[in-house]
Design brief:
By secondary structure, the protein is mainly α. The chain is 75% helix and 0% strand.
Length: 342
């Protein structure tokens, strides 16, 4: 095994050990009662929002296509998973994972129907069509009997129980790790480079033999699948699917997480989704009911970022173990060389 492969294997091992350590520590804190029910629910919500932000970043950041109806795919996934677990007759431990997969598949099917006509066109048609889809699917859910109508779908079994308080967090954290790993791997694959080429110059990519429609649709379907899974997690996290929670403001909230963190940076999406999820709780005591001011403050933050850092906080930069080790090694080398000169 050459040195390059050894370094790559070492990075994978260090990533796995750090992730396992963080996971074990958080599960221990939840199971031991150090983190109460509200705090553990907040951690699960952080994971769900990270999944949503990373999935949208694939289309908006990596592909460069604006999507304004991501909450619509989340809504479809939430109903698909909830209806399956309520009516399948299977134990929740078996029905829930199957329901998450089903949620992703149903959302992906909707994205194919939307994406095939929209992605063949040039310009911002995808943004317009997804905006319409997000509003239409919410209105439809408001008027169907099996979805519970405007009252929403209630009685959904939650994963977190008194006997297993970390149940939902375990599912959400594992899915976050899988999604981030898949996104990093996809971005460095042949398919990911084709998607990036479309973002940089679609005409040049098409002239080079890249099937632009196929790759745009592929990225869109993957993002919708992941959003559907996040919707399934959310439904079993709160126990109720209320269509009003998946409106245009929710789509904009997810988009803000992507833009704030950096268009094309998975690390940026993780950081911004975490901060913007925790921010309401941190400011609740200062501003009272923060929900009334959330979108206003998010908008102000977004304006400030666009004025002073148009590419987002991290731009397209990724914080990885290898990059951190490289910077530390470079710092130590510079310190040693400066001491020798003295």
């Amino acid at each position: 095994m050459d040195k390059r492969k050894k370094n790559k294997l070492l990075v994978y091992i260090v990533n796995f050990l750090l992730t396992a350590l963080v996971f074990a520590a958080l599960v221990f804190l939840i199971d031991s009662g150090t983190l109460d029910r509200m705090q553990s629910n907040l951690l699960s919500l952080v994971c769900i929002n990270v999944i949503l932000a990373v999935s949208l970043n694939l289309v908006t950041g990596v592909l460069g296509q604006l999507v304004l109806g991501h909450a619509g795919f989340m809504l479809v996934g939430a109903y698909a998973a909830a209806l399956f677990t309520k009516n399948s007759g299977l134990p929740l431990d078996i029905a829930f994972p199957i329901g998450l997969i089903l949620a992703g598949i149903v959302s992906a099917l909707f994205s194919v129907v939307i994406g095939i006509p929209a992605l063949r066109l040039k310009g911002d048609y995808l943004a317009i069509i997804t905006l319409g889809f997000g509003e239409i699917i919410r209105v439809v859910a408001n008027n169907l009997g099996f979805t519970g109508g405007a009252m929403g779908l209630s009685g959904i079994s939650t994963i977190a129980t008194r006997q297993n308080p970390a149940g939902m967090f375990i599912y959400a954290f594992v899915i976050v790790v899988l999604v981030v790993f898949v996104m990093f791997t996809f971005g460095r694959s042949r398919h990911g480079r084709a998607v990036i080429a479309i973002r940089e110059d679609e005409i040049a990519a098409e002239a080079s033999g890249v099937n632009t429609t196929y790759y745009k649709l592929l990225a869109f379907v993957i993002a919708a699948f992941i959003a559907g899974v996040a919707g399934g997690l959310y439904a079993h996290h709160v126990g109720v699917v209320d269509p009003s929670k998946f409106d245009f403001n929710k789509s904009v909230e997810i988009l803000i997480m992507v833009v704030l963190g950096g268009m094309g940076s998975i690390t940026g999406s993780i950081i911004s989704a975490t901060v913007l999820t925790l921010l309401p709780e941190l400011l609740r005591g200062w501003l009272g009911d923060f929900a009334n001011y959330r979108m206003l403050i998010y908008s102000i933050i977004l304006i400030i970022v666009m004025l002073f850092r148009p590419t987002g906080l991290l731009g397209r930069y990724e914080v990885t173990v290898s990059s951190v080790f490289g910077k530390v090694k470079g710092f130590i080398t510079r310190r040693r060389s400066s001491k020798k000169e003295v």
